[in-house]
Amino acid sequence: xxxxxxxxxxxxxxxxxxxxxxxxxxxxxxxIAGLDVNNENIxxxxxxxxxxxxxEKTTISISSFQPFLIKDFTTSSFVLGVPTNMGAIGxxxxxxxxxxxxxxxxxxxxxLKMGENFQSGIKLNYSQINAGDFYNNNSLFSADIGMGADLxxxxxxxxxxxxFTFTKMANFNDERLTxxxxxxxxxxxxxxxxxxxxxxxxxxYPASFLAGINYQPNEKIFLNAGVGSKPNLxxxxxxxxxxxxxxxxxxxxxxxxxxxxxxxxTYQLK
Length: 270
Hints:
By secondary structure, this protein is mainly beta. The chain contains three helices and 16 strands.
């Protein structure tokens, strides 16, 4: 029993690592089941780098995500975005793990406005996994690309490819960091009500269908919800806006594994 929990932690965390190195999408994304290709906020750095060009002010944010309420799996993240004349630049750092397994992720990306209604971006990532002297220790470089387009005032689309470089993790069995695709469309019924739909495809797993909703009844509060398939999950969250400070709480509920809460705090510099 002494070694059981550490071993389970390593095995489970490795499965997360293979699928997605760290869950560092921000609470807003978590609240709509991870359907984040059209989210136009600071967390676009990790979600869809192409959308970061819509950032209007220098913004920083921190987040803490705890999958299935297990402390050893908690991911802490930090992001910074700075607008430029033609787009925006962003950096991120995330870490996760315990004394038996630690994972670190650093990224830097740039998003470029390519006209009034189209934007794209690229992000470079450095990831490190440390699982002790008797397990895998590895450093990885990968890259993501993303784009977004405003087809009309009401309809927007976005797409991302995570790890389009097909980064190799180990020589054994040609093991590689997984590649993930997502495409989504968002319809603005008004500036206060947005419906999202999308599809996500991991090259190792069946496609997932996602849907989400954003509703902002007033300038101080917003409410979100989402659902997803394969795996079956639901999500919800809310946010409080106080001048340049935004607090967001969200959770996802897996059909079998339970709750995964996340908290984000965002600050826009004046």
